[in-house]
Amino acid sequence: MSDNSPAKLDFIREIIADDLATGKHSSVITRFPPEPNGYLHIGHAKSICLNFGIAQELSNVAARCHLRFDDTNPEKEESEYVESIKADVQWLGFDWQEHLYFASDYFDFFYDCAVHLIRNGLAYVEKLSSEEMRVLRGNLVTPGTDSPGRSRSVEENLTEFSRMRAGEYREGECVLRARIDLASSNMNLRDPVLYRIMHAEHHNTGGRWCIYPMYDYAHPLEDAVEHVTHSLCTLEFENHRPLYDWVIANCPVPSKPRQIEFARLNLTYTVMSKRKLLELVQAAFVSGWNDPRLPTISGLRRRGFPAEAIRHFCKRIGITKFNGTTDVALLEYDVRDVLNRSAPRRMGVLSPLRVTLENWHAEPLSHATLPNHPQVPEMGTREVPISSQIWIEQDDFMAVPEKKFFRLGPDRCVRLKGGHIIRCTRYETNADGLVDHVFAEILPGTVGQDAPAGIECRAAIHWADAATAIDAEIRLIDRLFSVEDPDAAEGGFIQALNPCSMQIITAKVEPSLADCPPEFSCQLDRIGYFITDSIDHASGKHCVLNRTLPLKDSWSKQR
Ligand code: ATP
Ligand code: MG
Fold it and tell me: 126 CA to middle of ligand 2, Å?
């Protein structure tokens, strides 16, 4: 798998290749236009990889991708979101260079275009309530009916619109509508609202405006101002395209962008809408937008999903016109694939069982030497201290071994990774009858050597040195929802939350993990992929590891 392999030509890339071949365009401009009203999620990553990816791939022609904040709604937007979105796009590996834009910078242009429409008899001020408007609009079988405002003169409309802008009306008292076709089979063309009154402060323009443009009106104009050639959006806007084209055809725009729709990404075991994510955050079901269980980019990052894996996943699922739901296991596969190649190995014991090596003095070691990666010798080795008292996983010992259990048991041998082969001599149980202390002997001469003749040793297990291992807080992160389609859950998606999505345990881990920086990814041998927490891990003080994924998909057998 390589991140650099050329993307297959999907239908959008084919359209673009065609437009270049026929000379319709000699350069290509795309854009990613988030509304700064929440954090980005993996669905946005699909759009980012598409838009920025196209610009990156077209190395023979001038091509670029803009990052544009669609901040036309004053009420829901915050600068925290702007900053998080920028950080997420960069972390994903993309660069807008100097092409960072805010739709609110074009408010004057939107206004001028509206005046232009009014002058041409293509827009009018409407004073009906939204309920009255809805009724007069008709429905799929009944055409709409003219409202009184529709026949108002151009002069009157110009006056009324400037009064709207001057703040002479209250919210909801009037709107500006396009005059298109009240009988259109496409409801979006039945004189849609272009501007509404909102007496609200805007983060960028402050109190300058009290009328704000609607998305369907503003978006094509934003694209046109920026000379965007291909405006890529999700399928729910397909029905809005005739309105997009109408705005472009009837406004004094400097360029003519083309809207093309593709299927949005949906994932199993995940909710993707910002509204629902916001609800999870506000109701404190999660610790914040960057909670490692969320499908937000910052959550996935904190959980240890590498940007490379997310990019590869987006490339692999491709771009189509068909809505569907992608199995989250596909994303997890890419994460394991990248981490398997790149994450250094470390050792940690999650359910510690004490082992005393009784004849340690026969051949004591100060440390075991372990490869940082079994397949990548360039990653070097490390020395892990070891002594006569160690921890192993409870699972790696069975007092009465089952068939096909090849690890430690009475009189059985196993290798300690990087160390000796040991043989269990006896064990002790606690008051509950559970094994709580195992005694073993080392077999001298077996470090780095095959088992001597006559000794059966079929497994190597990880361990932690009791004298030097540190206590790490381990967050066993699992899927946030326990059903495939939380959106369809009875009683709502909150009912589908997985009560075990984050269990916290204390583990014994090798001392090197104490000093590593935040966001250090590793594989704990035989257990899974982990990353030191970006917020709570304090180098040298408190080791906090998030489990990115277990080594194997434990959900696959449940389905
Ligand atoms: P949500 O529906 O999650 O609230 P949104 O569409 O309102 O998201 P925007 O900020 O408007 O969020 O999205 C920015 C861009 O990302 C848009 O072009 C949108 O089409 C795209 N996008 C949003 N969600 C997805 C998704 N699940 N798959 C692919 N693209 C998406
Ligand atoms: Mg949106």
Answer: 25
Protein residue closest via CA to atom 9 of ligand 1: 34
- Quick one: how many helices (H) and strands (E) in the chain? 12, 25
Instruction: Find, among 332, 379, 369, the residue nearest to 478 by Cα.
Output: 332
Nearest to 19 by CA among 224, 329, 228, 314: 228
Compute the distance between CA of residue 59 and CA of residue 6 in angstroms, rounded to an integer: 12
**Active centre residues (catalytic):** 35, 264, 274
**Candidate of 234, 237, 313, 331 to mutate for ligand 1, largest count of ligand atoms within 8 Å of Cβ:** 234
Q: At 248, which amino acid appears?
A: I
Per DSSP, what are the bridge partners of residue 94? none
Alpha carbon 75 to its chain centroid, in Å, reads: 25
Which atom belonging to ligand 1 lies closest to the Cα atom of 47? 30
Q: What is the pLDDT of residues 227-264, one digit of tens each?
A: 999 999 999 999 999 999 999 999 999 999 999 999 99
**Which atom belonging to ligand 1 lies closest to the Cα atom of 266?**
27
Within the chain, all domains assigned CATH 2.40.240.10 are found at: 266-308+322-347+470-552, 349-462
Distances (CA, A) of 184 to 136, 142, 151, 191: 13, 10, 18, 9
Architecture of domain 266-308+322-347+470-552: Beta Barrel (2.40)
**What confidence tier does 531 reach under pLDDT thresholds 50, 70, 90?**
very high
CATH for the 349-462 domain, from 3.50.50.60, 2.40.240.10, 3.30.70.2190, 3.30.750.24: 2.40.240.10
Ligand 1 pocket at CB < 6 A = 33-35, 43-44, 46-47, 233-234, 264-265, 272-275
pTM listed for this prediction = 0.95
Q: Which of 39, 44, 236, 487 to mutate to test the pocket of ligand 1 (most atoms within 8 A of CB)?
A: 44
321-375: per-residue pLDDT in tens? 999 999 999 999 999 999 999 999 999 999 999 999 999 999 999 999 999 999 9
For domain 107-213, the CATH architecture is: Alpha-Beta Complex (3.90)
The number of angstroms, rounded, from the C-alpha of 185 to the middle of its chain's C-alpha atoms is 38
End-to-end Cα distance, the chain: 27
Say if residues 442 and 357 touch (Cβ distance below 8 Å): yes
